[in-house]
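Dear colleagues,

I hope this message finds you well. In preparation for our joint manuscript, I am sending the S-formylglutathione hydrolase (Adineta ricciae) sequence together with its predicted structure, so that both groups work from identical material. I would be grateful if you could confirm receipt.
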Amino acid sequence: MAATGLTREQSFKAFDGYQYVYNHESETVGCKMKFGVYVPQKAEKEKVPLLIFLSGLTCTEQNFITKSGVQRLASKYGFIVANPDTSPRGCKIEGDSENWDFGEGAGYYVDATENPWSKNYRMFSYVNDEFYQLIIKNFNVDVNRIGIFGHSMGGHGALISYFKRPGQYKSVSAFAPITNPSKVEWGIKAFTKFFGQDELLWKQYDATELVASYHGPKTRAPILIDQGSDDNFRNKYLFPERLIDAAKKVSFPIECREHEGYDHSYYFIMTFIEDHFKYHKEEFEHIK
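The corresponding structure tokens are as follows:
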């Protein structure tokens, strides 16, 4: 189908479908944004489930589509898989490209409230409103079967999207997510700039805080989180046990699997990504 308001930059035949890269002018973040989308052959004839993948720090739209092996699985399971960039780019804000863990490539999937970031760094609204609707409008999506997952900063983004938008996503999973950003160096650095000193705002974008007050619909199976035991970020920035403990206190089901010997890389993701496809497929199959 023809894409409206999109410019196609790349098109690659992969398995029975196509891996595309598009750009568009975003009203939400005020710049041109790129994204990848894999469209299986099945989507040419019928509406199919959608998975949105959010990438981690320093990534563009390219990392996931070139390193994860997602195309084979999207073809096998008949899913459209869409992945946006991780931040606005080219906004020329002083300080947005000086460090790898903040600014360009590191938007943290939040809506900033402090100047000069609040005009462009609105990635939460971009992902969950503009990008979400853009994919539905332009591709053959079954709107009743949409899930979200991500890695590291993107795992954080997926979890907060699920908790902050009850019912919008029917399934959610994550690889090595930042679970408690308001309490770790990466998050504190970013949140101080994006939100100032208002720690109540910080908590509104923190999965460990959000799960404690979540009252929306729940996934049928526990939320799936995969974590590598040899991830050098695990005990300084990720802290999966904090999310698990908070979830247990409110009887929210989360399954965190720790995998011996795996690190934080895409080798870890490519090893276990099919488990995530199976997980989302099983969640979708129970939707009437």
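For the figure legend, we might mention the following. The chain has ten helices and nine strands. The longest helix spans residues 266-285.

With kind regards,
E.M.
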